[in-house]
Amino acid sequence: MSRSAARDAGDSPGHDTLWRLAAHKLLRDRAGLLALAVVGIYLLAAIGVWLGWWAQEWALITGSKWGPVSAEHWFGTNIIGQDIFQRGIYSTATAFQVGLLVAVLAVAIGALLGAVAGFLAGGWVDEVVLWLLGVIDAVPFYLMVAAIAFALADYPYSMHVAMVSTFWTGTARLVRGEVIKLRGLEFVEAARAIGVPGVTIIFRHVLPNTFHILLVKFTLVFVDAIKSEVVLSFLGLGVKEGMSWGLMLSESTLEFLAGQFNNLIVASSLLFGLVFAFNMLADALQDALDPRRAA
């Protein structure tokens, strides 16, 4: 059989149509578009920090202790005279850096292990993956993340390693279940019948048909990574260099008795806005990419 025939045998019918229908539905979802716009604003703020456009003086003492709100300091200054708004904007870049890195790695690892386990369901590889999933999921999330972050305290990316080590399991379970359904479909059976290697089937024909699941899962892991970073930074196990909303919240605990709440307001408001927008976007994507609803 020719290579073109082999390619045709491995193609999933209706896949492009699903994406077109999903895009059309998402464009009509006002809540989803609003969430996407809000995320875009946050992303622009983060890009501006990375490119050095703004918030570069977040660590400098530019005012007096607990300076008031002014044209120069939109949300005042903290206990040592640092601009609170600049610290909040700089923390947006930290949130995106953590969220993107953790989400990409966790989803990629989960997709790979889940696809292999699902394609070889019932075999020893599948049993090993399921055992790993059971062991990791049996340990309370924050306990495991905190333990890994503490054990790798001297490593600059200890927090990232800790989160990736736990966040991949959800993706693996979803992909494994989807691949088990896909491997029995005609286009996969046809690819097997003409002798297409299993690795090729997984990466070329099976995994691409799980991208709608991976996209939604990416947004959810992104949000979970940001929230976890805030908690870990608040506890002193997170960001080691730079600034984050978690560090701002930790600093705010020292300011309550003095009646200073600007750190708390700025950090919690920015965190809530991004998390809420990403959750709305994830819901919109899930609704648009659900084949039953898209049809």
Please specify the SSE layout and strand pairing:
Elements: H1 3-10, H2 15-27, H3 30-50, H4 84-119, H5 124-138, H6 141-151, H7 158-182, H8 186-193, H9 198-206, H10 211-234, H11 245-252, H12 262-289, H13 291-294
Helix pairs in contact: 1-8, 2-12, 3-4, 3-12, 4-5, 4-7, 4-10, 4-12, 6-7, 7-10, 8-9, 10-11, 10-12, 11-12
List the defining traits of the structure above.
single chain, 295 residues, MetI-like fold
Characterization of the model:
By secondary structure, the protein is mainly α. It has one domain: MetI-like fold. About 70% of the residues lie in helices and about 0% in strands. The chain has 13 helices and no strands. It starts with a helix and ends with a helix.
